[in-house]
């Protein structure tokens, strides 16, 4: 039996949730993520191959105690080998939860193959259900494709389906209650996420961000929110039961990464599409696994490098610190 070494940092936190970015490419151009013209994508030779991704996922599960893997991007559904990667990762350990964070554009076609391959569930990014607002935010008229993808995911059993939404001031911040009603009537679990300083343009400002308190204010004009009894644990979202006047109709979560940080309970580690370990979403340093992997390192050696990378994790993201510097890589190149 392979000996397991947990991914523990100096503050006693243990990373058991791995986010693997499969690509930095995306087929949307969301205004809070990247410019309209897109970005300079990573060259293919720098990207991890399917075999390399599966091998590192297996090391994470079998040697480092990872119990959940989320495939991210960029947009992971544009990765041609996605279904095979899911199937091969599922074969490593059938008990590990496998999920995907996606913009939903390809789900109508891929939901059933992904479910058959062993995917557990999906998170879909959706900031509005108004076609014109969707086109404004994403610079693409594709809302209908996302809706069809969500329906296909539900039919394929990829639930619970979670919706991730970012409110943008003077763009969609007046639509919070509308989006929540749309989600709960369809059985989707909505999570509002504070906009974080991870845009490629480095245009984020705390003053321009819609805060969690503002989100609550907008929701409570239409709904009664009651804190959920379920313990939050390491989950990033604060959960609330939603009462729309005719009893509880669902739940909603708010992820206040900026104004109510939850770094002390973080259990996540990230692997970029080019094989770099990031021990924090906002880390300014990375640890290279790709070079060692391609130079013939053993599984044991790669696991040891990963453990060392996690040991240096800082106590928090430091957004409130006057010396805070936004990571050089944007969210699309890091993975969610």
Task: List descriptors.
alpha/beta, 30% helix, 12-stranded mixed beta sheet, 336 residues, TIM Barrel, 10 helices
Supply Rg: 19 Å
The strand order across the widest sheet is 9-10-11-8-7-6-5-4-3-12-13-14
CATH architecture: Alpha-Beta Barrel
Overall average residue pLDDT: 91
In the CATH hierarchy, the third-tier topology is known as TIM Barrel
Question: How many E strands?
Answer: 14
Helix count equals 10
Low-confidence stretches: none
Most strands sheet = 12 strands, mixed
Order of helices and strands: EEEHEHEHEHHEHEHEEEEEEHHH
The proportion of strand residues reads: 15-25%
Number of domains: 1
Helix proportion: 25-40%
Q: What would CATH call the homologous superfamily?
A: Aldolase class I
Basic shape:
globular
Distance between the termini: 32 Å
Tell me the structural class.
alpha/beta
| CATH class (first level) name | Alpha Beta
